[in-house]
Amino acid sequence: MSGWLVIAGLGPGSETLVTPEVTAALAEATDVVGYIPYVARVAPREGLTLHASDNRVELDRARHALQMAAAGRRVVVVSSGDPGVFAMAAAVFEAVESGPADWRELDIRVLPGITAMLAAAARAGAPLGHDFCAINLSDNLKPWALIEKRLRLAAEADFAMAFYNPRSKARPEGFARALGMLRDVCGDDRPVIFARAVSTPEQAIRVVPLTEATPDMADMRTVVLVGSSLTRIIARNGVPIVYTPRSAPE
Amino acid sequence: MSGWLVIAGLGPGSETLVTPEVTAALAEATDVVGYIPYVARVAPREGLTLHASDNRVELDRARHALQMAAAGRRVVVVSSGDPGVFAMAAAVFEAVESGPADWRELDIRVLPGITAMLAAAARAGAPLGHDFCAINLSDNLKPWALIEKRLRLAAEADFAMAFYNPRSKARPEGFARALGMLRDVCGDDRPVIFARAVSTPEQAIRVVPLTEATPDMADMRTVVLVGSSLTRIIARNGVPIVYTPRSAPE
Q1: Which has more confidence, B123 or B168?
Q2: Which of A18, B204, B218, B244 has the smallest count of CB within 10 Å of its CB?
Q3: What is the rounded CA–CA span in Å between residue B116 and residue B197?
Q4: Which of A105, A115, A153 lies closest to B118 in CB terms?
């Protein structure tokens, strides 16, 4: 019996954004491991065991998946979006590095998915159409001072930006500080896009100028995109188009 | 007759990475527009006209697609990867903004795809598992000084980095300068991943320390990923695993 471990991205929500590669891996799996709402997206079937666990137990979940693969099971760890972007892939490799030597020789594959910022950007136009950065605003695993430093340098570099995990009940003040700092450093009224639950029935996209962006416009299902100094808005009936041109002037 | 325009991402190469949403749009299209090698990935069929054009005519291509959609055709503009990342979506919106007013009211949708950096990251492990940035190293449409400034600030922010269009015959010296600057600013031997033609039969992944990275390791089919100061390598038989942990220390 030859086990394997796949770390798969389910995309932002819609089944029409799940790659055929991920669908095929799920069809071959004996075990699916992940955070409760992501495992809930996998259809139960005979021969498949679903292991749903709570949030913030990523390392335990990763070790459990590795143990099962080492025992010969065909295991898929599911993430929403892309598993390599603020999701389960790094957690699995942390567990591999600190685990028994034979885990290194397992058949481990990462299958990419549509990450939230790119699904959100597509719905809004092309706000990430020029150089950009992605920052996890959660300070669970890094100091807030590092987040502030990155925000300041990213604004100075004139990147468009995508923020994951902008706001939680546990730390409501962080995102307000981030918005305040951006207003100070950017000094203009570039567009901010709040994209919630993209590609699901609850999808909501809101575009506001930076000076009007407030923390309550985001929750943990929201990805926030901030334009660069060159980002433009095309007004039209309904939601405007937000895009960043390919060119930057001399 | 009601036309529409879809700007679709075909992913990095493999058909197993094309989303069902994109496959469905192609099945409904009357016209497919794009750069020759991307249009070649669409199967011909009765009722579908393929419009393949050369590189560097993005705005002409975008206007042609918009004209056809305005005339009632169902048009798909194809990009490799994700259309919103250094690809056709921004070009189409530039054409919309400078074009006739009725183009703004067209049914235009962007369908995301698996972008090269995330496909490459998945093959290598999880090098973009913490905050990161994406920079187009081509200076066709922006001054080289801006690229250098962004590289310096991105290194100072300790982002992992993804470089698109690292090298062309027309400007072979740019990438060498970028690597030299990173060696100076980073001052360590973090891993660099050269990922060529990911997910195609020509796929080649190479991991080298920054001090050993040379420009000839990349061509225009290569995406280059550079770790942050925290990026780690897990040695094993065959290609090592490269990943950036989720945590950053105080």
Answers
A1: B123
A2: B204
A3: 9
A4: A115
Tens of pLDDT, residue by residue over B142-189, are: 999 999 999 999 999 999 999 999 987 677 789 999 999 999 999 889
Question: Does ipTM exceed 0.90?
Answer: yes
Whether A159 contacts A225, CB under 8 Å: no
A150 and chain B: CB distance < 8 Å anywhere?
Answer: yes
Task: Check: CB of residue A247 under 8 Å from CB of residue B141.
Answer: yes
The torsion angles phi and psi of A71, rounded to 5 degrees, stand at -85, 5
Asked if residues A234 and A245 have their Cβ atoms less than 8 Å apart, the reply is no
Which SS3 state, helix, strand or coil, does residue A206 take? strand
Tokens representing residue B196 in the block:
């060529």
Beta-bridged to residue B161, according to DSSP, are B133, B226
**Furthest CA-CA distance within chain B:** 61
DSSP string, B48-83: -EEEEE-TT-HHHHHHHHHHHHHTT-EEEEEESB-T
Crossing angle for the helix pair A88-98 and A58-70, nearest 10 degrees?
60
* Residue B165 near residue B141 (C-beta atoms within 8 A): no
* Beta-bridge partner residues of B105: none
| A138: exposed, middle or buried (Cβ count in 10 Å: 0-12, 13-18, 19+) | buried
Q: Of the given ranges (A54-68, A120-134, B58-72, B119-133), which has the lowest mean pLDDT?
A: A54-68
For residue B110, list chain A residues with Cβ-Cβ distance below 8 A.
121-123, 125-126
Residue ranges of A 24-63 with Cβ closer than 8 A to chain B: 24, 58
CA A60, CA A187: separation in Å to the nearest integer?
Answer: 44
Lowest mean per-residue pLDDT among A100-114, B35-49, B166-180: B166-180
Which DSSP letter does residue A175 get?
H
Angle, in degrees to the nearest 10, between helices B144-156 and A144-156 = 170
CB contact under 8 A, B121 and A112: yes
Q: Are A29 and A76 in contact (CB under 8 A)?
A: yes
Q: CA of B121: which chain A residue's CA is closest?
A: A84
